[in-house]
Amino acid sequence: MSEIEELERRIANALDRLSEALEALRSGSGRAGATALVAELEAERAANAVLRRRVQGLRERREETEARLSQKVERLMERIENQDAQLARMRSLNAQLREINAELREAGAGGIAPDAIDRGMRAELDALREIRAAEADEIEQILNDLRPLVEERTDA
User: Fold this and answer.
1) What's the total number of domains in the chain?
2) 3-state helix/strand/coil string of 61-89
């Protein structure tokens, strides 16, 4: 953006010089002032064309960045949907495991060995820990993926 500001400053200076040249022309400085005025006008037209090309380049880069960010967001949304489906499956399996353990506890009252109940309870606890770890990993991964996007947005 500093290039644009520099060009704007140059254009403003040129316009000031043009005003001075016009004033000199009006006061009768002659043909030399008119020639200088035309030359400055052409130079500023060229600078203006350069500025327009640069602005167009900036617009194109912004559009490319927006398209790239849009693609990243789409990929992140797909990952979130996939992880949501995986998490739903894990929760379903965990619910089944709890039901089985409940049945084991009931059967344990009828004489099943306590170590079978303990194994079932440990399996349930391990499944719960696994779900929590998966959720924590998922949150961390999402945050890591979103952090660059947020930084790009705040830099723009």
Assistant:
1) 1
2) HHHHHHHHHHHHHHHHHHHHHHHHHHHHH
DSSP category for residue 109: T
* Number of other CB atoms surrounding residue 130 within 10 Å: 13
Question: Could you list the residue range(s) of the whole structural domain that residue 58 is in?
Answer: 2-155
Q: Which residue has the tokens 């327009």?
A: 52
Q: Which two tokens stand for residue 16?
A: 């000031």
Tokens of 22: 């016009």
Distance between CA atoms of 101 and 122, rounded to whole angstroms?
Answer: 10
Which tens digits make up the pLDDT trace of 35-93? 776 777 788 888 888 888 988 888 899 889 889 888 888 888 887 887 787 788 778 87
Closest CA to 69 of 148, 122, 7, 155: 148
Q: Which amino acid is located at 143 in the chain?
A: L
User: What is the distance between the alpha carbons of residues 7 and 51, in angstroms, rounded to a whole number?
Assistant: 7
